[in-house]
Amino acid sequence: MPARLVIEGDSAHIEGSLTFPDVRRVLAEFERALAVRTGSTLEVDLSGLTRIDSGGAALLDEVTERGRGRNVRVAYTGACDEVAEIRRIFSSGAGARVAERERAGLLQRCGVWGYHTWAGFLEFLQLTADTFYWSFAGLVSKRGGRKGAFVTQALLIGVDALPVVLTISFLVGAILALQSAAQLRQFGANIFVADLIAVSMAREMGPLMTAIILAGRSGSAIASEIATMTVTEEIDALKTMGINPVRYIVVPKFYAISLCMPLLSILATLVGILGGLIVAFLYLDLTPAVYTREAIEILTAKDIVTGLVKSVAFAGLICTIGAHYGFRVQGGAEGVGRTTTASVVAAIFAVVVADCFFSLIFYF
Amino acid sequence: MIEIKGIEKSFGDHQVLAGVDLTVGTGETMVILGRSGCGKSVLLKLVIGLLKPDSGQVLVGGEPVPYDRPGDLFRMRGKFGMLFQAAALFDSLTVGENVGLGLKENTSLNAGEISRRVKEKLLTVGLDGAEFLKPAELSGGMKKRVGLARALAMDPEYILYDEPTTGLDPVMGGVINELIRDLQHKFRATSIAVTHDIHSAFRIGDRIALLHEGRIVHVGTVAETKATRNPVVEEFIEGQSG
Ligand SMILES: Nc1ncnc2c1ncn2[C@@H]1O[C@H](COP(=O)(O)OP(=O)(O)O)[C@@H](O)[C@H]1O
Ligand SMILES: [Mg+2]
């Protein structure tokens, strides 16, 4: 006797033999029953089933799945041993697997995330060590490096970034001066605006703003170039030709950015102080000569040196983080975009954390 | 001789290779056939040490591939040439510089000798005079030829080909097949070519192995492969002929 589905309120029962030829019809009947029961439970009594085959077992699983899609919980009861056994054998087990995965969820995900983060960090340290090693080795011996690459990279990183670095530093200097001018004027302490701008540009804003701009410009360029080379197997090709990719690709960029960053950062500081000078002249009635003398007097060698040390460190961070994310890329061309974005966020984060750290060791 | 012994490799919980055993005799060209995504490229990268197996080992000329000793690994790779799936040429270098890169970095040859060797290899692949073009100016077939010339540049004992005809039209694919076959006859390098293209496999292979669900399920000469009753092989051949 073919299967018959009887639905009464929130419960239903199936009678007869549920086999392959019935599947399409019974599934359609179930589908109608599920459609009007969103958010409730459908209890299906299987005690009337005399026979079931693999098609029937798959049907019952499918109904559970579709019920989940419509937010209906489907429960089967009363199956005789024979029917239960056949269901167990042919069930895809999809329901059980999904539930299991959900249960293992949070803790497992945290564990996996922690493991990947830690493994990534170790890889990063390894890459940093390699980069330093080959940078110094490269200063001693010229083999394995790339002639001309350093100059190209330096021009790309340094000269191209110059306009935006200068504009932003000038504006930052001017903004700092404007913000402090109102306060300083109340105390008749106008002259101290020069001290404030000079010190904060040299110690902090010059190196930091330059680093953030270069993280966005050069860090992303490094990450996307290396990621593209990884995806197109060019990195693998280098390795098969016996060429170390860190030495051949990362090190020239490392030299270039380590040289450009301090230079850009000095220029940024000077232009920032100039921005302050113009505000001081227009709003605080300070002559440029007075402002300049005050600024030069307040600056110590330590301020200059710490600024430079910081900017070299930022350069190293930006280069190695960009390269690290580039080498780790996964998932083809789409992955290149993702890893580039991730590298910029990570580089800016690292620069700010490192800046905080330097402020602690240099000034406390 | 290249001996692959019990190689297993997983990425996360996705097992790609589940115990691959295969021996490639000296001077022989072994073609490994398999569907896209079945782990052919992974297998080649394991042979040349770009990836490390979870278990098992690869012996090259009797020596195990030194996965954990970067210095030795670099030395071993000096005996290999590899043609990558998409050729993997360096965009910023000219064709000549691409072909000569390994020579320039790893040998003490001077610029004149390098450029002579580069010319000779480009002539071998039928691209004489293309030294000063950039990879961006080349067609797919030309890129593969440059990739081949680069793989041959160091006169390797072993050559690995990753999908030499993929992405080419049938005519150009045929030309590349002939070229590879000529090179194999001329240089007798011990070679492994992986492909999903059965025509290419029959054309360039001395023997053919089928990689299926992480294992080698068939190895035999071209004639044996065509005649076999192994159902997986038959399905693979039928799926592509006609
Ligand atoms: N570096 C990797 N990380 C994660 N999965 C990988 C990696 N390389 C390959 N795979 C996976 O291994 C499987 C086989 O890939 P591959 O060897 O490239 O296939 P094909 O036979 O087409 O060359 C694919 O499912 C792929 O997703
Ligand atoms: Mg492949």
Secondary structure layout plus pairing:
The complex is a heterodimer of chains A (364) and B (242).
Chain A: E1 4-8, E2 11-18, H1 23-35, E3 41-45, E4 49-52, H2 54-69, E5 73-77, H3 81-90, H4 94-140, H5 149-186, H6 192-231, H7 234-240, H8 245-283, H9 288-298, H10 301-327, H11 332-363
Parallel strand pairs in A: 2-3, 2-4, 3-5
Antiparallel strand pairs in A: 1-2
Helix pairs in contact in A: 1-2, 2-3, 4-8, 4-10, 5-6, 5-8, 6-8, 6-9, 6-10, 6-11, 8-9, 8-10, 10-11
Chain B: E1 2-11, E2 14-24, E3 29-33, H1 40-47, E4 55-60, E5 63-64, H2 70-77, E6 80-83, H3 95-106, H4 111-124, H5 140-152, E7 158-162, H6 170-187, E8 190-195, H7 198-204, E9 207-212, E10 215-221, H8 222-227, H9 231-240
Parallel strand pairs in B: 3-8, 3-9, 6-7, 7-8
Antiparallel strand pairs in B: 1-2, 1-4, 4-5, 9-10
Helix pairs in contact in B: 3-4, 3-5, 4-5
Adenosine-5'-diphosphate binds next to helix 1 of chain B.
